[in-house]
Amino acid sequence: MPLTFAPADSDALPLTLIASDDLTGWLEGQPPQIRAWVEGAGFTAALGKVLLLPGADGAPAGALAGYGTAAQRKRGRFHLAAAAAALPGGTWALQAELPTDTLAEECLGWLLAGYAFGRYHSRAGASARLVAPQGVDAARIETLAASEALVRDLVNTPTSDLGPQELEQACAELAATYGASIEVTRGADLLDRNFPMIHAVGRASDQAPRLIDMRWGSSGPALTLVGKGVCFDTGGLDIKPSASMGLMKKDMGGAANVLGLARAIMALNLDLRLRVLIPAVENSIAGNAFRPGDILTSRKGLTVEINNTDAEGRLVLADALAYGAEESPDLMISMATLTGAARVAVGPDIAPFYSDDDAFAAALSASSAKVADPVWRMPFWEPYEPMIEPGIADLDNAPKGGFAGSITAALFLRRFAGGVNYAHFDIYAWQPSSAPARPAGGVGQGYRAILDALPQVLK
What we know:
alpha/beta; 16 helices; elongated
């Protein structure tokens, strides 16, 4: 179903959102038959629980949605989405007294409850529709829902149908929709145009490696987004075990999240000069695959010793970041499913980010709380710089020892973003188990917080 609000003139039934602490007071103002119905059903306004209210003819006349306690709500987000999934089809008008930001979050969650990835198997999300409540920016919320659906669809699609060529096509379709320009450098042309590490990582695949370069907007500050587009990661010659390879269709989750953010920026017509760079490759195994021990010379001229071919994402990002930095944008952001160390540090639900800009970090953290898109600042810890300096080359793509893996990866990337205001997001892009508004599978992380913070950091 479309992830949109129902028309305002819909014949909607009332949906009353009630916190557990408010249920007794609400019941005191209801007719005896409603009190008897609610009490007889054992409804306690527990978080996510729904109770239909009968009309005189026996048909539903409305419904109650439990909002639990404040302590319960702190342990999750998108609580109204659980009610959307539990309600029967039809149109509903929300009755709730919530702060504007919370109301917007709950409305977005409702729309996202309608998402289902049905490309290969018939399935559907929640069918209940919501009339946009007074006080919310309905168009913005619908834009966020559609952008999230794009992210999820891209991440959920297996590499058999989303290799570098198909990822390029997705970018081209997005560019055509919003009037952006797109340029793609493929195969041997990567060497001619000095993107040697993108070529090295992707050359063993049947699909040629490529760098996708999309531009939109003619005024305002310059924002460059760089997304890791490794459409599948075998680990290369340092091959992953099968248990680790099973989710590697999602290794282009950075590219997907960057495209979701770009779509939102363009749809909302923000006053920005937007550039999107996506190195799209498969890290495959063949006779011409790059090898452990190889030393690659990057676009920036820095040499990199390959101590693990499974640390390939930072290599393709490095060339793209160096290219993006050449135009000195006002802000450059990379997003990548880069390290398992980030998951060990903060788990699957939080997007750790790195930035030297305290003002950006503060704005992002505030926006994170405002739009229910959790992020956490990590340090560009300079005492760890020697860990990425192997001696035989300028840089090491996989420092030994296993310590601070996400930090050392971020330090590696920062070497190639030199001189510009740069932030890096080490995301997971995957929901391990279903939660309200977030079915198991691909998911957006961090980009809604970035979107909300941009007006504060790009003035």
